[in-house]
Write a structure and sequence with these properties.
Elements lengths: L10 H33 L5 H42 L1
Length: about 90
């Protein structure tokens, strides 16, 4: 999935972050749900077991992707705060 994290201040940056979080979650859900549906269709017995498994796996993967992005964003914020504190202490 995407690992690009926007940097810099502004409303546009915040919108990019929100879009990235949403896209990571949605793509994970779509891929795993489709795979489960595809397996159920190939089996041909009318069951939806693999579709449900795909949805659950998609939720787990989407949550994992969101967690990774949030962790990266938190690291960027901490680094920016450290740089700001260092700059203030040098003055």
């Amino acid at each position: 999935m995407m690992r690009v994290v926007f940097s810099g201040p502004g409303e546009r940056n915040e919108m990019g972050r929100a879009l990235m979080l949403g896209m990571n979650f949605a793509v994970g859900m779509a891929v795993f749900s489709f795979l489960g549906y595809f397996i159920d269709q190939k089996r041909g017995d009318g069951a939806i077991f693999f579709t449900v498994v795909g949805i659950v796996a998609g939720l787990a993967y989407g949550a994992y992707e969101v967690w990774i992005v949030i962790r990266i964003l938190n690291e960027q914020v901490k680094a920016a705060e450290d740089r700001r504190k260092k700059t203030e202490s040098e003055k």
